[in-house]
Design brief:
This is F-box domain-containing protein. This protein is mainly alpha-helical. The chain has helices spanning about 30-40, 55-60, 60-95, 115-179, and strands at about 1-5, 10-15. It has four helices and two strands. A hairpin with a 2-residue loop joins β1 (about 1-5) and β2.
Length: about 180
Amino acid sequence: MTVVTRKRGRRTTTRLQDPSPSPLAVALPEDLMIEILSRAPVSDPLQLRCVCKWWKSLVSDPQFVKNHLSRSIAEINDLASKALEDMIAFELQLNHAPPPPEPDPEEEDGAAAEEEAEEDAAEEEVRAMRKELDNMLTLVRSLKQSLETIKVDVQEIMSRMRCLQSFLQIYLKTATQSQ
């Protein structure tokens, strides 16, 4: 706690001792710390080992490993099911896409048609082609977006798997060294 007083135009600061203990001095039970650390939002729990020796020992604790593995596997399963849903939606979207238009064979009947009717038919054909191309462009954009979503899901799964693999390798290495 800090008290500020004024003496003859000068400002002085006096520090008083606070009788309450600092929040860092309070020790938490080990099982509570394990639960807190296993819920920590870090991508790699090995980063927690660098905080202090106590955290390093907690990260190597079998209970922490069990909690972390169960949470990691559940998260990976959730990501995998989301990626699978996206892939199924993509497949359905691809299966229900309209087939590409087939060119109409031009028929020549040998008779001279009116020039205005030909122009109207040509304009109608251009409108129809433009509409089909717009629909195809919309479909391609939608498919691209679906593929990007799947790509992000798979990259996240791969990242989590790499972190889990490195965590298990180091845990097994420290477990075999301690025996």
